[in-house]
């Protein structure tokens, strides 16, 4: 049990109700993440954590394990997913005699990743220099150039005012969008800390076209367009 992949998919979704089982390209959204995890040889088990019987049934149909149901208190809108991570790891500790060497979290909302993205994250983690590996893509906005905040007097200003005038975004310090493509973590870190950036974090770059995070109907429609375009190109 060196590496275990988890897909955390609760039943409630206000932005797009039922999104985890909504059909994308002819199969449920969650099936994409399950199949991508199963395609990575280093992953020994693929486990779905959910509070939904419907999601659990779909997950099993597509090859994932659903050995437990997530408690309702860990599946609310305001429930920190970090606690769901701990709940899943506690299950492994209790039933498998210990924790895996690495845990992978693959949100169902990032269906356009490819297995190689997961492999790249595992490669980075196995270098031994991080408690957590995240994925990033090129940012569309920069806090040094075109991201603003409201000041106390009602005016707006840059989130991070630069020390010298910056007239082009390309001249601002490089910044990245954190994506939901994949997370790889040391289980001991998850059990003893409370947030991603409480430890040493490394990043793997993912092209923006594979980094869509589906939260709304518009996000879903964009994913459909990207998927259809990719199929036509193929």
UniProtKB/TrEMBL annotation:
Q: Which Pfam family, an example, fits this chain? A: CTP_transf_3
List, alphabetically, the SUPFAM superfamilies matched.
Nucleotide-diphospho-sugar transferases
GTP-binding as UniProt keyword: no
InterPro entries per UniProt = CMP-NeuNAc_synthase (IPR050793), Cytidylyl_trans (IPR003329), Nucleotide-diphossugar_trans (IPR029044)
Q: Does the keyword Nucleotidyltransferase apply?
A: yes
Swiss-Prot/TrEMBL keywords: Nucleotidyltransferase, Transferase
Task: Please name the CDD domains in this protein's record.
Answer: CMP-NeuAc_Synthase
Domain of life of the source: Bacteria
Please give the Gene Ontology molecular function terms for this protein: nucleotidyltransferase activity
Record's protein name: Acylneuraminate cytidylyltransferase family protein
């Amino acid at each position: 049990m060196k590496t275990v992949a988890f897909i955390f998919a609760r039943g409630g979704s206000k932005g797009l109700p039922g999104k985890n089982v909504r059909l994308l390209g002819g199969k449920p959204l969650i099936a994409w993440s399950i199949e991508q995890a199963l395609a990575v040889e280093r992953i020994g088990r693929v486990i779905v954590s959910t509070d939904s019987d419907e999601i659990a049934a779909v997950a099993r149909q597509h090859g994932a394990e659903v050995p437990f149901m997530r408690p309702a208190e860990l599946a609310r809108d305001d429930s920190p997913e970090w606690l769901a991570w701990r709940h899943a790891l506690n299950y492994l500790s209790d039933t498998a005699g210990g924790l895996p060497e690495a845990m992978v979290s693959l949100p169902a909302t990032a269906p356009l990743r490819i297995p190689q993205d997961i492999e790249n994250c595992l490669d980075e983690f196995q270098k031994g220099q991080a408690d957590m590996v995240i994925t990033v893509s090129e940012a569309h906005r920069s806090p040094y150039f075109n991201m603003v905040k409201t000041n106390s007097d009602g005016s707006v200003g840059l989130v991070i005012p630069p020390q010298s005038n910056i007239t082009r975004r390309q001249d601002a310090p490089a910044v990245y969008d954190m994506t939901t493509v994949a997370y790889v973590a040391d289980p001991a870190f998850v059990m003893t800390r409370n947030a991603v950036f409480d430890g040493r974090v490394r990043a793997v770059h993912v092209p923006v076209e594979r980094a869509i995070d589906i939260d709304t109907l518009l996000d879903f429609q964009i994913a459909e367009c990207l998927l259809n375009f990719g199929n036509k190109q193929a």
